[in-house]
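In response to a reviewer's request, we include the raw inputs and outputs for one of the modeled complexes. The two entities were modeled together in a single run.
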Amino acid sequence: MRRLEARRQMEEANFLSSKARSQNLNPPIDLRMLDYVTAYDDNLMCPICRCPFLDPVVLAECDHCFCRDCIRQTWASTYSPLGPRGDCPSCRTPAKLGPRSATSKILVNITDDLLVRCPKSEDGCKAQVKRGEVQDHVNIYCGYAYMECTADDCELHVLRKDAAEGCLHFGVSCLDCRQSMQKASLETHWRVQCPDRKVSCELCKEAVFNREWDTHSRETCPAISIPCPGKVFGCNSRSKRSQADVHAKSCTFAKLTPMLTAMQQRMDEQEAAQKVMVRKLEVLEGGFQAVQTILSTKQEDPDQVGADESRIPLLTGRPHQRGDSGGMLDAMVVETDVGAFVFPPPSSSSRPSSELVHVRAGASLPPLYSAPMAPGPRPADLPEPFTMDFDMASPFPPPAANGPYISPLHHLLSMHESLRDEMSRMSAALQELDGRQSMQALNENLRTREEISYMAAQVAGLSRQVHWLTSAQLQRQQHGGAGRQAAGAAGPSGSDIAGAGAGVEAAVSTAASALRGAARIVNAGQGMTMRRGLSEEGRTKL
Amino acid sequence: MAGMSSKRLQKELVKIQGTLPPGIALVSAENLREWQMDLSIPDNPIYPPTEKYRLRFLFSPSYPIEAPEVVFLASSNPERKIPIHPHIYTNGIICLDLLDTQGWSPVHNVESISISIQSMLAGNTKAERPPGDAEFVRSNRQRPRDINFLYHDPSV
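The model returned the following structure tokens for the whole complex.
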């Protein structure tokens, strides 16, 4: 009895462990990830995961249905110890999941009856089973699910369909690519990896190398339907690659496609060129306007205009004027090969006809040509680009303010003259400025000189004062000496007088030295304050 | 969870590529992380009917349990502006409870969000920015979902 019991326990343990192992090999299927064979009713769909309901629950408060997992995840943030609760995602009614929340069995049955593809369909299983049975299918029937190798001493796993062939876990090498691997994985290798193995295309039944599979399915497979070559121009038909030629022969769009594409291309080119031209025109108009303003300001003095008219050589109708600016410009026109932009007929008479012979009539302006042209008005002293500018600017009429010109070249020459005038006016202005500058310097000089003389006068006055003071003191001393002479019985004491005379002399000499110092400082050009300080100094010294 | 998110987004994408309400168009959905939609607003003089507004959806791996991040994008080619609205900041951030953690519900989807924003714009009567727009645009470095908006205006 005890032995029986032990045996039963062992069998149970074996069964449990093998079940656990098979679960490890084939983890439970996530039913949300399944592909459904047929479309399902939107009413059977959980609004959260958009799959047919999985273990549906109904909220008693509002009757809305959700998958149990979906509503639990939604309410995961609003945890409460009384069980899952929160607001209904559809209508925001506060609700909770109770023990009786499961929906009626009929909904479960309907959703479990939907046909799904086996989750191993990518590995090759073609089974389509009901959703409720898919777990059983994978666990028990599916040939592409893993199970343990049947060999006793082998611990590895093998696909169920290969299990009957015994242990396949021995090394082989692929016949095509020479890679070594186990026999059990050879089939998968052949099917998806091996680059040298041919697989048959399902559409065209042709054997294709794995490594060429991408290009085959994209470009070469004759059974893949491709759009008509005239699709961009309106043909909506699609046909298999092999029959594309047949269609192309009958399709008007396809026939016209090369021409239409060429036209489209040309149109694009033309548009690009036109854009360039428009930009150029803007630049030119800006420059033109600038020139025009210069011209109109210049033409206000009438005598210069008269001079201009007489000096323009082309007005006289001479074809060649070498050495003159007109001839030079002509040469430049030809050099830069902008002959394609022919002047309007009136101008041709004024140009040397021999140089116009090799004009390329149909040549279009290459877009590159515009590259060196900077936007904004052109500097007026560059003759060569100017020639180009006015070749192209010729179509729009010269403004009436400048009078009618016989040709753009004429216009150009007059402009040249105006520039020359501008130049001379500039130089006159420069001279005037120079004169004014020197005048100003002179004035400044004069004022300084005046100031110096004023200072000298001051110093002279000071010296006169000093003189007066010294003479006054001399007189006082003499007077004192005389009084003493008269009062004293003793004769005049010469030593006294001599002493007084020496004192006066000393005083005079100090005054003189002070004056010299003052003169020195005045000469050094010191200001009024200094002068006042000086006179004070002189006074104290006195 | 990532599986559920991508599966649901795939289903939504299939539906969106089929039919969409008028005025809403899918622009790009190259991956299952960022989608862009174009909105046009009919019947509101504030928004010219020819003008389109670009919405950007950013999905987290826990979509649809978590709300996607939805902002308006401005671009120059094609020309897309940020629509003027009292609840839309100049940097494109939308103050809408639907897009916040509290207001979000996993039942919503890209289409329903687009419709909500479209109707929010269509019902707008004030051509103005939110108060403190310049300050917010200058100082805000947060993701829209981290900002604590105060939803006070039940009229939109």
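As requested, we also summarize the result in words. Helices of chain B lie at 2-18, 110-122, 133-139. Chain B touches chain A at residues 1, 3-4, 7-8, 11-12, 64-65, 101, 105-107, 109 (CB under 8 Å).
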